[in-house]
Amino acid sequence: MSIILVPTDFSEHSLTALPFARKQASSGDEIHLVSVVEEENHFFSTLFSEKDEKSALYDDAERALLAELNAVAEQHLGDTSFQCQLIRSTSRPSADLLKYAEDNQVSMIVMATHGRSGFLNTIFGSTTERVVHASKIPVLTIPSQQILDGAFPPNDTLNFHILVPIDFSDEAKQSYQVAREQAGIEGRHDPLITLFHVVEDPTRATYHNALGEDVDEIYAELHLRANQAIEQEISEFFPDIPVNSVVVESEDDPHESILNFARHRRVQMIVISTHGRSGIAELIIGSTTLRLIRSSPVPVLVVPSR
Asked: What is the pLDDT of residue 54?
């Protein structure tokens, strides 16, 4: 049995993650719907001086929150097995979530990129980025429902298109098996994987100008080498399923090239590693991953480097 962790702060944005978590759950898997609550609240501490009185208040509030969590799960998760838990925050919500994931042997975290602030401890926005940065397991980040609704027509029946940005590093290759697993999820219409590589703009490398080399020739050589390398990747890691390859030359930042392709080629999920390499190939992993989860119109599945 695999466990999928879904954090929520009860906002509509955070609940966007639930249908995606349900899709990730196979028969026998379990979804843990959790909310992080403050262990101590200064406002209540000033109102109630008696420890027992404060303790009773917190107990009542947590029972109410837990009941609300169960109601949300029953509404959105259907017949998928689930548990609802409250996490008393002892440090940062991101650290609390990651500890929960480790203690409960969670296999994936599914969380929205935005939530809300207020009495409940905010666990989205920057917290999502902290979770992505430090997680040892894949994290599927979900944009707001409004963004998702604008990405595709309601009855879109085209291929389930998975985009995998790569830079040929060992770290980037960690995303290959995860992309294969996503393509194999039941009910996904004619899944298609595209390996995507951005060729560095040679004009950014000053040593090329110093050598007096022709920029077009450099582009052509980099493009040829990238295509040869990507064909080798497909042969080694995807010998049994159809995979597309795309190599682009771009003066944009890598995340912009990825997003432009995703928007125009009707990509429905981006699978990317958290770290890559720098060098002659444009660095498209690492900080690019954070930029993607902030602005992608489709879910981004972030695979940790091991």
From this structure: 53
pLDDT of 109 > 90? The answer is yes
Task: Indicate the residue type of 298.
Answer: V
Start and end residues for every CATH 3.40.50.620 domain found in the chain = 3-142, 148-303
Residue 168 has phi, psi (to 5 degrees) of 70, 10
What's the predicted TM-score (pTM) here?
A: 0.83
Q: Which secondary-structure segment (H or E) carries 247? A: strand 243-249
- Report the C-alpha dihedral over residues 272, 258, 116, 94, rounded to 10 degrees: 30
**CATH entry, 148-303, from 3.10.310.70, 3.40.50.970, 3.40.50.620, 3.40.190.10:** 3.40.50.620
14-24: per-residue pLDDT in tens?
888 999 999 99
What mean pLDDT do residues 93-114 have?
92
The topology under which CATH files domain 3-142 is: Rossmann fold (3.40.50)
136, 34, 43, 145: which is closest to 93 by C-alpha? 34
Per-residue pLDDT, averaged over 242-267, amounts to: 88
C-beta contacts of 133-137 below 8 A and 24+ residues apart: 133/274, 133/290, 134/94, 134/98, 135/98, 135/101, 135/109, 135/302, 135/304, 136/98, 136/102, 136/304, 137/101, 137/106, 137/107, 137/108, 137/109, 137/304
Q: What percent of the chain has pLDDT over 70?
A: 75
